[in-house]
Amino acid sequence: MMGTLCGYLLTSCVFLLTVCLCLSELSCEEGHSGPTYESMQDVFDKKSFRPAFNLSNPTIANISFTLYAVLGVNEKTQILTTFLWLRLYWFHEFLIWDPEQCDGVTKISLPVKDLWMPDIIVYEFVDDDVSQACPYVYVNHTGHIRYDRMLRLVSACNLEIFSFPFDIQNCTFTFGSYMHTIKDVRVSPALSFEEMSGNSKQYLEASGEWELVVILGEASILKFGIDEWDIITFWVVIKRRPMLYVVNLLIPSSFLMVIDILSFYLPPHSVDRASFKMTLILGYTVFLLIMNDLLPSTANGTPIIGIYFSVCLALMVISLLETVIITNVLHHNSMKYRDVPRWVQVVVLKYIARVICYRWPEEDSPRAHEKPDSSAPRVIQPPAQSTPTPQTPRNMSGALPLSVPELSQICQDVNVIRSHISELQRESGLQDQWCHVGYILDFLLFRTYLLLITFYALVIICMWCIWINQ
């Protein structure tokens, strides 16, 4: 009795399985290409259910995409906008037919709104999906569905702009089901990551500001509480093309810095140098205001190019201050006719002049000033006043020689003139000494300024070369 019951149950199971397999295939009619509409309508009525006879078996979705364009990078809001060609595959167990019975038809297109499809999303999506959706899918006779669509992806990305405009960004696209756990929907890449990267480089190779470096990926499991989701994480590495910013930002700024350096060759005792430098600073400030729109802005940090511009402006201000100091030494101190302090003569005129190889004129060398002055002014003493006596000789006309008061006045006038000339010579000598002090300090500060700019430029160039070669 028990054996008869077991045989009956086994026969019933085989019969039901055969019926299910027969019912799972779409029916075809003679003279009708492809499955009948009635049989497909039965599948459309089941679009609310996952297409699996055994719900314990998960539906496998295969994902691939081609990065067609980088539409925008917003550093302030940390948002990357891209345009993708997304391709999605999955298996529909209710859409299977025999091509031999259906006039050799192996593939048909059906409206996507009438079929169940996996709820695959991008977890980094931060905006409304305004992309144009494709209304149809291709269905193979084996039940495999291919769905292609264009996706305007606005995603959150941690953008690093410190090395702008030679920056490299690494953004993440995470694909996975929004609602179905790993027990219902599994995801896997439809193509290898190398093939996705190669296909994307063909479209991004000669267009736009950004260049695709590589697309990497990894399949993993996302755990949240007791549930698990199957996900695929893609790392899209893009590099900015810096030529636009080099031509519009770095080269003009470098030209202005070179002009500022060449302005040191203007005469330091001329007021035109200070005016020229102030005009140059004003022009550089206007240049920064105009170019401000090209610089990225973010609350996370400042790009090194912004630091570069700030340091260049600071160096120009330092150059102007140096000109003010030299002008004060050349004009203010020399106009007061004060003697050059001893320590200035020792430090500046002797040691610093020797360090910077300052060339003294022959008549203004320190050795010429150390020679004793043999031409000291001689004071003409007027003769002692005396009254004429009867014995005073007279000339042939009978008049006395030159009177004594007139001779005394002439001697006083000559002494005043000689004293004035000596004072002018002393003032001229002091002025020459202060001029040499100013020239020596100008040469010293100019060479220090030149070394500082050279060191700063080498550091910046080395850092950018390292980032370019990464």
Topology, pairings included?
Elements: H1 2-24, H2 37-44, E1 59-74, E2 79-91, E3 107-111, E4 120-122, E5 136-140, E6 144-156, E7 168-177, E8 185-189, H3 193-204, E9 210-224, E10 227-240, H4 243-262, H5 272-290, H6 304-336, H7 342-355, H8 366-370, H9 404-468
Parallel strand pairs: 1-8
Antiparallel strand pairs: 1-2, 2-6, 3-5, 4-7, 5-6, 7-10, 9-10
Helix pairs in contact: 4-5, 4-6, 5-6, 6-9, 7-9
Span of the ends, CA to CA: 80 Å
- Proportion of beta-strand residues: 15-25%
- Secondary structure: number of strands: 10
Low-confidence stretches: 1-23, 370-392
Assign a percent range to the helix content.
40-55%
Characterize the structure shown:
Helices cover 42% and strands 21% of the residues. By secondary structure, the chain is α+β, with helices and mostly antiparallel strands. It has a 6-stranded mixed sheet, with helices on one face.
Keywords:
alpha+beta; 10 strands; 470 residues
Question: What's this entry about, in short?
Answer:
The protein has 470 residues and is an alpha+beta fold. The protein has helices at 2-24, 37-44, 193-204, 243-262, 272-290, 304-336, 342-355, 366-370, 404-468; strands at residues 59-74, 79-91, 107-111, 120-122, 136-140, 144-156, 168-177, 185-189, 210-224, 227-240. Helices cover 42% and strands 21% of the residues.
